[in-house]
């Protein structure tokens, strides 16, 4: 547990926070959108499980723009 | 001019409705801070996670602040460009494909304003995301290693932004020329990565090429001095950006809009 | 006075000649129907008038156009399948295109409210267009076409995708639009044209094969028809009318016969006289005017 103590939380906390924002925004958008490329549940899992990359993948590939 | 701002305002509204104004800056910030964090904590992570025999000493030479900052720039060179291309590949062709362009261009809207307002919207999004991302990287590098002079950051930013804007403008041009967004992504990605590859080995033949800009930024950060060819390369980048934009407008005008 | 003058309009897509030289004028303040079967070239013609397609040959001149070749300020256009920004609300979209058309912010706002009311979607004005039904999109489409008070309103098949109720409402709306501007709308249904328009342009295979006022058209093509049903073969009884001056043509099939006649009264008398004199085994005698669909077929086959 040496690692946890030595970590500079002032630097790690922003990382975690913006990561959560990204995930939340992706989920909100997923819920509001009627159609996605590929099944919705699959994107929900990808957004929740794959760190950072999941939400970005959703916005780049999964989202259907009009 | 008034009409141009109306079009630009619509681009901004669209980019906030589809959350581009959230996820693109966040992605660029994450790309910027991941490298300083991982390279700083890497020895400790290996130490605590790795199941190494007692007494093993891992020697990882501590990188300099400039090296860490350059490392995070290389993330933009790959993933950053990928994001720019994928998020803007439908910038012109999308509205044409869906058909909404018919309702817009049947109004007295100039082709010039239509294309340039879209370009400007994407440019503002990308350049401000890059600014935030590089600023975050600079700050994290500073806290974890050592603060580089802010002027170094600014120098790196403008040259890098010039390069990414050129890539963005190439995407706009392809999107005006090609019907399918996937084709736009393919053409731009292949062009950029092939040019980068060629530029990496033919540094002498291509010393004026805008594709060398990222290289020159690294040089500026390590040697504290711009290499001599930065100015022609930067000038050409601006010139190509302008030329691509003009070509995009001309192509868009010529295309049959109604099919 | 002509609002629009079209001269020798030609459009080729690659090798295919889609429009083969149209000449016509649109009078200010009239409603004109562009009639034709699917593929006759109606949409291509409208798109050229709207400036969305460049003609291969020929000219389109507008009365009072500011810049040669760009008359977009003067026209409003509704495509057959209008597509909007689905992420905008109806109100946002109308204000947006209003401002693009040169209205001030205040004018665009006022005009938007007015039009939402006129086309009957003001209840849904703050809803995203992505959630709109087909009929609502059609009405929004009409609203966007007229927001800048154009002199010429062009609508491509505005009613063909609608259910009977929606169709009725849109036709009534067109009736109102006529008061403010010249209306040109395309349709493949003659009844719709007849209901609102004074004039027609009949397009077939990229050519105008008939044009003029609705009355002229009707007089020329609309004939009366007498249907007869016999017990037994009809042919023997009706064939002698082939030389009758009042009869234009005869069709018979089995025990049924139809006589297309010029002068209904005269024809009726002579047919009934024959029936009595020759003691026809007649089951049915019916007078009907031929349907517009049949007129349509006639003109097209010409």
Q: Would you list the SSEs of chain A in sequence order as H and E?
A: HHHH
Q: How many strand elements of chain C? A: 13
Shape of chain C: elongated
**What is the helix fraction of residues of chain A, given as a range?**
over 70%
Q: How far apart lie the N and C ends of chain C?
A: 31 Å
- Can you write the helix and strand succession of chain C as a string? EEEHEEHHHEHEHEEHEHEEHEH
Portion in strands of chain A: under 5%
What ranges of chain A have pLDDT less than 50 throughout 5 or more consecutive residues? none
Radius of gyration of CA atoms of chain A, rounded to a whole number: 15 Å
Distance between the termini of chain A: 49 Å
How is the largest sheet of chain C built, in terms of strand order?
5-6-7-3-8-9
Structural class of chain A: mainly alpha
Which structural class is indicated by helix and strand composition of chain C?
A: alpha/beta
Q: What is the second-level CATH architecture of the largest domain in chain C?
A: 3-Layer(aba) Sandwich
- In total, the number of domains of chain C comes to 2
Which CATH class of the largest domain in chain C? Alpha Beta
Number of helices of chain A: 4
Overall residue-averaged pLDDT value of chain A? 86
Instruction: Name the CATH homologous superfamily of the largest domain in chain C.
Output: P-loop containing nucleotide triphosphate hydrolases
Q: Give the CATH topology of the largest domain in chain C.
A: Rossmann fold
Subcellular location (chain A): Cell membrane
Main location (chain A): membrane
Protein name (chain A): PLDc_N domain-containing protein
Transmembrane segments (chain A): 7-28, 40-61
């Amino acid at each position: 547990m040496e690692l946890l103590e030595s970590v500079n939380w002032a630097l790690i906390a922003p990382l975690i926070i913006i990561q959560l924002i990204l995930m939340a925004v992706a989920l909100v958008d997923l819920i509001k959108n009627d159609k996605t490329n590929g099944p919705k549940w699959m994107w929900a899992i990808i957004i929740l499980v794959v760190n950072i990359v999941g939400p970005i993948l959703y916005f780049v590939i999964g989202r259907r723009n009009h | 001019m008034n009409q141009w701002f109306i079009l630009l305002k619509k681009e901004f509204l669209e980019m906030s409705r589809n959350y581009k104004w959230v996820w693109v800056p966040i992605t660029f910030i994450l790309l910027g801070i991941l490298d300083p964090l991982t390279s700083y904590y890497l020895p400790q992570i290996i130490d605590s996670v790795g199941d190494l025999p007692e007494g093993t000493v891992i020697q990882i030479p501590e990188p300099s602040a400039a090296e860490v900052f350059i490392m995070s720039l290389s993330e933009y060179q790959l993933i950053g460009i990928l994001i720019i291309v994928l998020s803007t590949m439908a910038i012109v062709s999308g509205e044409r494909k869906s058909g909404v362009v018919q309702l817009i261009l049947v109004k007295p809207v100039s082709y010039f304003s239509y294309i340039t307002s879209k370009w400007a919207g994407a440019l503002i999004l990308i350049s401000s995301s890059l600014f935030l991302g590089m600023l975050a990287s600079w700050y994290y590098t500073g806290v974890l290693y050592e603060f580089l002079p802010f002027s170094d950051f600014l120098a790196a930013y403008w040259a890098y932004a010039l390069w990414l804007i050129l890539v963005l403008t190439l995407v706009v041009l392809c999107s005006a020329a090609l019907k399918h967004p996937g084709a736009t992504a393919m053409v731009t990605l292949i062009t950029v990565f092939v040019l980068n590859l060629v530029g990496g080995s033919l540094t002498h033949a291509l010393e004026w090429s805008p594709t060398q800009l990222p290289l020159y930024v690294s040089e500026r950060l390590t040697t504290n001095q711009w290499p001599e060819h930065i100015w022609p390369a930067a000038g050409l980048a601006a010139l190509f950006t302008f030329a691509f934009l003009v070509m995009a407008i001309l192509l868009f005008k010529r295309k049959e809009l109604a099919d | 006075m002509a609002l629009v003058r079209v001269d020798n309009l030609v459009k080729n897509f690659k090798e295919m000649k889609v429009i083969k030289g149209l000449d016509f004028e649109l009078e200010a303040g009239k409603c004109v129907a562009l009639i034709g079967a699917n593929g006759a070239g109606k949409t291509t013609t409208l798109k050229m008038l709207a400036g969305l397609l460049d003609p291969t040959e020929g000219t389109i001149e507008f009365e009072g156009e500011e810049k040669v070749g760009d008359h977009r300020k003067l026209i409003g256009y509704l495509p057959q399948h209008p597509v909007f920004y689905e992420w905008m609300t109806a109100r946002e979209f109308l204000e947006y295109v209003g401002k693009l058309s040169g209205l001030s912010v205040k004018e665009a706002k006022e005009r938007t409210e007015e039009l939402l009311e006129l086309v009957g979607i003001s209840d849904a004005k703050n809803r995203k267009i992505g959630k709109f039904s087909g009929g609502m999109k059609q009405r929004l489409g009409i609203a966007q076409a007229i927001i800048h008070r154009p002199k010429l309103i062009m609508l491509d098949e505005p009613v063909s995708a609608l259910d009977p109720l929606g169709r009725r409402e849109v036709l009534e709306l067109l009736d109102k639009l006529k008061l403010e501007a010249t209306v040109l709308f395309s349709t493949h249904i003659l009844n719709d044209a007849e209901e609102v328009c004074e004039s027609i342009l009949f397009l077939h295979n990229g050519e105008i094969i008939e044009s003029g006022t609705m009355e002229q058209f009707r007089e020329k093509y609309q004939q009366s028809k007498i249907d007869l049903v016999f017990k037994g073969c009809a042919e023997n009884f009706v064939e002698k009318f082939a030389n009758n001056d009042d009869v234009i043509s005869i069709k018979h099939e089995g025990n049924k016969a139809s006589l297309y006649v010029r002068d209904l009264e005269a024809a009726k008398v002579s047919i009934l006289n024959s029936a009595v004199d020759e003691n026809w085994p007649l089951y049915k005698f019916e007078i009907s005017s031929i349907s517009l669909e049949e007129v349509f077929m006639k003109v097209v086959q010409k």
